[in-house]
Amino acid sequence: MKRFKKKEHLTEKEKVEERREEVLARGRKFKYPLQYAKHRLIFITIIIVILAFAAAVGLGYVALYKFGYTNDMLYRLTNAIPVPVAKIDDELVRYSDYLMIYRSTITPIEQQQGQFGNDANSDTMRAYYKRAALTEAEDYSYALKLARGLDLFVSDNMVNNAIAEHRKAGGIERSEESFNQILNDSFNLSLNEYRRMVYLSLIKVEVSKAIDQPAEQALADVQSRLAASNYDLVKVANELADSDKIIYEETGGLVDHLNVDGGRASAAMNLQVGEVSEPFVSTNGDGYYIIKLIAKTDSEVSYASIKIPFTEFAARVSKVRADGKVTEYIELSEESAEQ
Predict the structure, then answer these.
(1) Measuring CA to CA, how many Å separate 313 from each of 130, 142, 212, 289?
(2) Do 176 and 231 share a structural domain?
(3) Three-state SS for 290?
(4) Is residue 339's pLDDT more than 50?
(5) Residue 5: pLDDT band with limits 50, 70, 90
(6) Is residue 333 in a domain?
(7) What Å distances lie between residue 95 and 74, 123, 214, CA to CA?
(8) The domain containing residue 99 runs over which residues?
(9) Is 196 domain-assigned?
(10) What SS3 state is found at 91?
(11) Residues 6 or more apart whose Cβ sits within 8 Å of residue 330
(12) How much is the pLDDT for 297?
């Protein structure tokens, strides 16, 4: 009786506290089992995610390095995750660069000749273009390494200017939208991917110019001879006929000023008859040109040209390959596809 009596004399605050404790005591019976289940669920989820990721990595590895697939999904994957396809002189070669070059090369070919099938000839063609793409990607990566050592760079403005010139190809000023459509339809490239290709090509040009002392010396020799001969390209070409340092060419008649010739026809269009240009780098970056305008109309030109090719970069790459400093992580045909 005393116990119940004592309870009757509890204050309201004490009664509330007592009730609260009773409720909490009942809740504790469910709290710890639920916490255990929750932790177990999180643990299982983490395990599943890890296993799924490992499976995806494994499948991606097999698809890329074992079978060498080149489809869109794997290409996007290599863009998101910069995995290597090879190594040249300790410089990693991006798998995405290799696939970008391969896909942009094979797309216009298939548009003109039809989709490659599963026959032996198609397999040979695919193997050839894969070999060419990987060789080109390795060359670009080697150029990137040399550029860092020489403190060379290509700015966004340089890339923008080059693309602006490409948009005018054929004498037509294309809008950005139409140019992007051409890139996508004709080369299977986005504008960002095309920017990457332009960037790589410009880096290679800058490196080629910087390291090619023989070309610089040959250019100085040609300029000196031209000045002494009243800018007679034929005479200078004859003087250097036994040299492998220059290449002399004539159009042999009028050609369109938009002719695909390393930029010579376009440069000639800006000259007067008999005038000789300043040296300039070819649009494909393989050497210097000096041209002399022979004749022109409103849309055609005839010219003579002396080319001083770049050779040092190719010589260095060849030595790196000969020294066994190229490691490739995929198996491709050994058939030469070097440019």
Answers:
(1) 22, 9, 7, 18
(2) no
(3) strand
(4) no
(5) very low
(6) no
(7) 10, 21, 33
(8) 71-212+319-328
(9) yes
(10) strand
(11) 64, 65, 68, 85, 86, 134
(12) 94
Q: What tokens does 339 get?
A: 């440019």
Percent of the chain scoring above 90 in pLDDT? 57
Q: Which residues pair with 306 in a beta bridge?
A: 248, 290
170 and 75 belong to one structural domain: yes
Q: Regarding beta strands 255-256 and 300-309, do their DSSP bridges make them parallel or antiparallel, or are they unpaired?
A: antiparallel
First to last CA, the chain: 107
DSSP letters along 242-282, please? T-SS-EEEE-SS-EETT-SSTTHHHHHTTSPTT-BPPPEE-
Residue 338 in domain: no
Contact 152, 207 (CB under 8 A): yes
Could you report the per-residue pLDDT of 111-169, keeping only the tens digit for each? 888 888 778 888 888 899 999 999 999 999 999 999 999 999 999 999 999 999 888 87
Where do the H-state alpha helices sit in 151-190?
Answer: 156-167, 176-187
- State the total domains in the chain: 3
Rg (CA), the chain: 34
Q: Which amino acid is present at 16? A: V
Q: Give 54-97 pLDDT, tens digit per residue.
A: 666 666 667 677 767 788 888 888 888 889 999 999 999 999 99
CA dist 293 → 227, 255, 264, 271, 334 (Å):
16, 12, 10, 6, 44
Q: What is the DSSP string of 31-43?
A: HHHHHHHHHHHHH
pTM: predicted TM-score of the whole model, two decimal places: 0.77
Contacts of range 37-41, beta carbons closer than 8 Å, 24 or more positions apart? none
Q: Is 206 helix (H, G, I), strand (E, B) or coil?
A: helix
Pair of tokens at residue 46: 């983490």
Q: What is the pLDDT of residues 31-62, one digit of tens each?
A: 555 555 566 667 677 777 776 666 666 666 67
